[in-house]
Specification:
Blueprint: E1 12-16, H1 21-32, E2 36-41, E3 56-59, H2 67-72, E4 76-81, H3 87-94, E5 100-106, H4 123-126, H5 149-163, E6 168-173, E7 175-177, H6 187-194, E8 199-202, E9 212-214, H7 215-227, E10 232-236, H8 244-255, E11 260-263, H9 291-295, H10 304-317, H11 323-326, H12 328-331, H13 340-347
Parallel strand pairs: 1-2, 1-4, 2-3, 4-5, 5-6, 6-10, 7-9, 8-11
InterPro entries: Epimerase_deHydtase, Lipid_A_modif_metabolic_enz, NAD(P)-bd_dom_sf
Organism: Agrobacterium larrymoorei
Domain NAD-dependent epimerase/dehydratase: 14-237
């Protein structure tokens, strides 16, 4: 398969996890640029935002032996893997590389560690990592292994970077946001507002800055990377790393909520009540440099303030269903996200 460069006209893209939050956005972007897109997922359905295009969908259980090779057939100019998780998934991609022009694979910025080896994965047990602001791709990472989400992601990265003979772009996003998510951090605010909470506490005085990444910006970096195939690692993040207080204010505006956001001077939630702890709450900034992505032509297509209204509308429509089933990653947090009794007790003491 010839390595693609330039525009997408006549090129074929195969997206693993095509119906998920990232796959939907990447697929739509490539369709608009003239790519022929095949969406691969367990159900094999076509995303609703692709139905007006001449796109294809295939059912795929990638863990069945030979299933990926059969699904991709005679190949693709680009394979975009939005759901690769570990070294086993890397081996699956290496097994089809003779029929692939290049790969774009989603990893995570959670792989970064500080000089003591601390990461986001174990921050509640070991303390928050001491990381520089606007980390570059050269920041130290965890070692590969089966222990945590991040060590598995690094195993995926290393295997591909060390062994692939085709160009591989590894993308490291931060706190991903957009519709059709199984981990919509915004639900922490939206549910409180829908439930009629009049005051919402924010720990660390609402100053926490955990860089956000719009799925449309992941799609933008993907499109630019496909124009210039090479092996590299790229951070992906929004133009600004907003503090939690500003994120909450934007959500309140989108929801037309008239209550109060109350910054509280509270220490590390590891040592006490999770009152005011949001999914973006960190004691120190966690921010990414996107200079490397900008060097290949990346310009953020959207910022958080532009994306939040659509997210809130989508979440509001989902509010009549069990959020634990709809948002399973949120439901797996190790403490209650909506402990209103604890909040009421805090406000009345």
């Amino acid at each position: 398969m010839e390595n693609p460069g330039g525009g997408g006209m006549g090129k074929r893209a195969f997206i693993l996890g095509g119906t998920g939050q990232i796959g939907r956005s990447v697929g739509l972007r490539l369709l608009k640029e003239g790519w022929a897109v095949t969406y691969a997922s367990r159900r094999g359905n076509l995303p609703d935002n692709a139905r007006s295009f001449d796109a294809n969908a295939v059912s795929l259980d990638r863990d069945q032996h030979g299933a990926l090779a059969r699904a991709i057939g005679d190949g693709a100019d680009a394979v975009i893997d939005t759901v690769a998780f570990d070294g086993k998934h890397a081996d699956q991609l290496l097994g089809i590389e003779k029929t692939v022009g290049q790969f774009v694979v989603i990893s995570s910025s959670s792989v970064y560690r500080d000089h003591l080896g601390r990461t986001l994965d174990e921050a509640r047990e070991n303390g928050f990592p001491d990381l520089p602001e606007y980390m570059t791709e050269d920041q130290s990472t965890v070692e590969p292994g089966p222990e945590t989400y991040s060590t598995r992601k690094i195993a995926l990265e290393r295997r591909l970077l060390d062994q692939a003979t085709r160009p591989v772009t590894i993308l490291r996003p931060a706190a991903i946001h957009g519709t059709h998510s199984t981990h919509p951090r915004e639900w922490w605010f939206v549910k409180r507002m829908l439930d009629g909470r009049e005051a919402i506490p924010l720990c660390f005085n609402g100053k926490s800055r955990f860089h956000t990444t719009a799925v449309s910006n992941i799609a933008e970096v993907t499109a630019r990377a496909l124009e210039r195939p090479e092996t590299r690692i790229l951070n992906v993040a929004d133009p600004s790393a907003l503090p939690v207080l500003e994120i909450g204010a934007l959500i309140a505006q989108a929801m037309e909520w008239k209550g109060r956001l109350i910054p509280i001077d509270m220490g590390d939630p590891r040592f006490g009540s999770p009152v005011g702890w949001t999914p973006w709450s960190v004691p120190e900034p966690f921010t990414l440099s996107t200079e490397a992505a900008r060097r290949i032509g990346y310009t953020a297509s959207i910022g958080y303030s532009q994306s939040i209204k659509e997210i809130c509308e989508w979440l509001t429509q989902a509010a009549d269903k069990d959020w634990r089933q709809q948002f399973p990653v949120l439901a797996q947090y190790g403490f209650p996200l909506f402990d209103y009794d604890a909040e009421d007790k805090f406000f009345h003491t």
